[in-house]
Design brief:
Formyl_transf_N; alpha+beta; transferase; 8 helices; about 25% strand; Methionyl-tRNA formyltransferase; six-stranded antiparallel sheet; protein biosynthesis; Formyl_transf_N_sf
């Protein structure tokens, strides 16, 4: 049971394991995307279909008894869940012979919820991790079978999730192998819990009136989705871009937070403390490019950025 690329990476590893049989895959319904609002299947569905595995896409497992009956008929040893995006009722959690097992991308009880990787990066934590837990009715409150930590330095949410999938697979396989023999017993969560709220499009607008280190953390947290959006004031008019890669630098000019500076092929965004030098960006409606390509032929007007992406002029440099 899973939906995004992270879950597909987990599924791919299960499919390669000779002692595991995946009789069915559950994933979120196809969602409209793009200007044409064409229905797009999830990465998990694409992978399952490529391997001729039956796919189920119920709107809810709480309100569809027929789906619960179908799942019960499979007589599963396990339910393996990774970023499914749907709450499972207790009647479903009680179905597997051994356990409902969830791959969660945090060191529980920290960052329970739907966006643990993004929220951890936004908070600037130095390490996070993956937890293999036994599911229960509460939100990510179940006891933990195994966990492993990973450093966050320099990672985006996309790159960190890729690393976490590789980290989670051996832990998951070990848990699935050892539970029937009684060699793997989950331990109740201890410590202070926190909640990782779902990421929205609004989280993609960047506030530069904070220290550069925290702005950098926020940008990495929303990369690649929903993307770090800012609006630059150019002499030709405003242009919205997605910041794809930045690095921290000093504010040598004394310009105020939100100022946009272009010099010697460099684009610098001033923060409350320090500044960020842009390495790569993607202008709206165009392809990703390095900053030198973007600045070629462009002339920046003195301008400011706000958290809502509106332009707030501060006068010419």
């Amino acid at each position: 049971m899973g939906t995004p690329k992270f879950a597909a990476d987990i599924l791919a590893s299960l499919l390669e394991c000779p002692w595991i049989d995946v009789p069915c895959v559950y994933t979120q319904p196809d969602r409209p995307a793009g200007r044409g609002k064409k229905l797009i299947p999830s990465p998990v569905k694409n992978l399952a279909c490529a391997h001729n595995i039956p796919v189920r896409q119920p709107l809810s497992l709480k309100k569809e008894p027929a789906e619960q009956d179908f799942l019960a008929g499979l007589k599963p040893d396990y339910l393996v869940v990774a970023a499914y995006g749907m709450i499972l009722p207790q009647t479903v959690l009680d179905l597997p012979r051994y356990a409902p097992v969830n791959v969660h991308t945090s060191l529980l009880p920290a960052y329970r919820g739907s966006a643990p990787v993004q929220r951890a990066l936004m908070d600037g934590v130095e390490r996070t991790g993956v937890s293999i837990m036994r599911m229960e009715a509460g939100l990510d409150t179940g006891p933990v079978y195994a966990s492993a930590s990973v450093a966050t330095a320099g990672e985006t949410s996309g790159s960190l999730l890729d690393r976490m999938a590789g980290l989670a697979v051996p832990l998951l396989l070990s848990v699935l192998r050892d539970i029937p023999e009684g060699h793997c017993v989950p331990v109740e969560q201890t410590g202070t819990s926190s909640y990782a709220a779902k990421i929205s499009k609004q989280d993609g607008w960047i506030d530069f009136h904070r220290p550069a280190r925290l702005v950098d953390c926020h940008i990495r947290a929303v990369t690649p989705d929903p993307g770090a959006h800012v609006t630059l004031s150019l002499e030709q008019g405003p242009v919205t871009v997605v910041l794809e890669e930045v690095c921290c630098t000093e504010n040598e000019t004394g310009a105020e937070a939100g100022s946009v500076l272009a010099r010697k092929g460099q684009l610098v965004l001033v923060c409350a403390e320090g500044a960020l030098q842009v390495v790569r960006l993607k202008p709206q409606g165009k392809k990703s490019m390095d900053v030198a390509s973007f600045l070629n032929g462009q002339r920046l007007a003195g301008s400011s950025l706000s958290r809502a992406g509106h332009i707030v002029p501060v006068g010419a440099e």
